[in-house]
Structures are given as C-alpha cells and as structure tokens.
Sequence to fold (305 residues):
Amino acid sequence: MVLEDKEKKILEFIQGDIPLVANPFQELAKSLDISEAEVIAKIKKWQDSGVIRRFGAVLRHQKAGYNTNAMVAWLVNDKMTDEIGEIMAEHPRVSHCYLREVPQDFRYNLFTMIHATSQDDLAEIIAHLSKVTNVKEYNILQSVKELKKTSLKYV
Amino acid sequence: MDDLDKRILDILQQEYPLSINPYNDIAIEVGITELEVINRIRKLKENGIIRRIGAVIDAKSMGFHSTLCASIVKNDRIEEVAKIINARTEVTHNYIRNHKYNLWFTLTASSPEKINGIIAQLEDLAQIKVYSMPAKRLYKIRVALEMGDV
Fold:
C-alpha cells in the first residue's frame, strides 16, 4: 500500500493511543490542515478495505476479568482442518484460530487462543470444543510468564 | 467495574463511533453525560483495563508476514535467551509456556526471507534451535471479548 504523507500521519496517529478528549481527531486534523470529517473518512475507508481490522479499545484481558488464558493446540486430521477450524472460530472465547505448519514431534496443528475467567471456565470451554469437534488430542499451553507484549508500528 | 463500565467497554471494543464527538455518541446511547463517559474511560485506562484506544492494523494488508516460533530452552538460560529475543523489535509477543517447547514468541517482518534471517540470527546469538510454525490458514483473529461474560 502506497501512502501519501498525510495518510502516513493519520495512520501513525491511530496506531497509538488517541487522546481521550471530546474531539479526539481535532488536533490531528488541524496539524494536517484538513477537516476532522476527512480524517474520519480516511479511517472508515481503511476499515472497509481491511487495512484496519478494528477501531476502538484494546483491553488488557487479564485485568478485564479474563485472567485465565491458554493457547490450546489441537491435533486435527488434515482433511478436517477447515471444518473444525470454522467451528472453533465461532466460539466467542476463542480470539485466534490458525492452522499451522508444525515440527514433526509437535503434531498439534490447529492453534486456538482461549480466554477464560477461571481454570474451571477454561476447562469447560476446552471440553466443549473437544466435544463439538470430536477432537480428542490436544495440548494446553498455558503461559507461565509473559516476557514481551507489544504491537508493531507499521509506519 | 460496574455494569455501565462493561457496557461502555463493549461499545468501545465493538462499535466505537467514528465521529467528530465519539464520546458524546456513547453518552447518548448509554444515557449519561459526555463528561461522565470520558471520566469512566479515564478510570478504565488508569486501572490498566484499557491498554489503548485506536486502530488495530491488519499486518497482512500492510505487506507484513508473521510466524509463531517455539524453542526448547534450559530453565537456567531462559532470562538470558529471552533478553536476546526481546531485543528484536520484530518480536511482538514472547511467553514461557508449560511444555517441552517452553519459549513461544511471534515474529513479524516485511518478508518471509527477513523472518528466516532473523530466526537464523537469533539461533546464532542465543545458541538455541528455533522452530517456526507459520500459519497455513487463518480462521479467526482477535475479535473483541464480551464484557457481559466477566
């Protein structure tokens, strides 16, 4: 994607934490010598084209009450991956679902990130997903420690 | 965090009003003043519940590639190895997990070749073997979590 200078500035601005004020786009618009409506139209355009996946609040799940999170890797037959991937993706507590190339000694090829409010809640979600997909072999990779969590700057 | 905070969080995550006065729009929707909405959001930020408000950019449409990496690191070397890995800006997440593969991190760069180059450098610098697990299919990515379930 080729960006003009003003577009770059807008993208840079919205990649960060926008100011918590009544008119969050006012100062940026002023500095770029365009209207707030133009800034907003640009953001909406990027939303429609998929450059922006979502606009809004990004939460710290742990602090928001989802304090038990796990990466669960499932062993899924190659012929079933799309069907099962779609079922897992539909679950509201699954935030990420990917089919991955994995090393031979790992085997579990379908990855889900699951967010739960307790260990019991997590166990229930996993049991449910296992039941509805009939995938019996999986590995619960719970994080012992977070060593880094950032977002990449694209401009 | 009360029910109104949760409702505001749901709106902020899922249907942030892209307008000139977004917090006034939310105020009208939930039936409090704009100032009260802003004050509640400020508290949610101070408490660390809201990390930030802004855009979540799609790495792929910006021409970026990423992979999930795993490594087997002896416990007494984890800190040292993590330091080397975390020093790279291309590494966005890094966790110790309860498995034989105990160190899991994500790498994002502008091409698969760059990713492979970074992996080779990390293997050399940290004296570890890195297993890359690139995605073959994507079924879902980071949808907002409903606050009503908390």
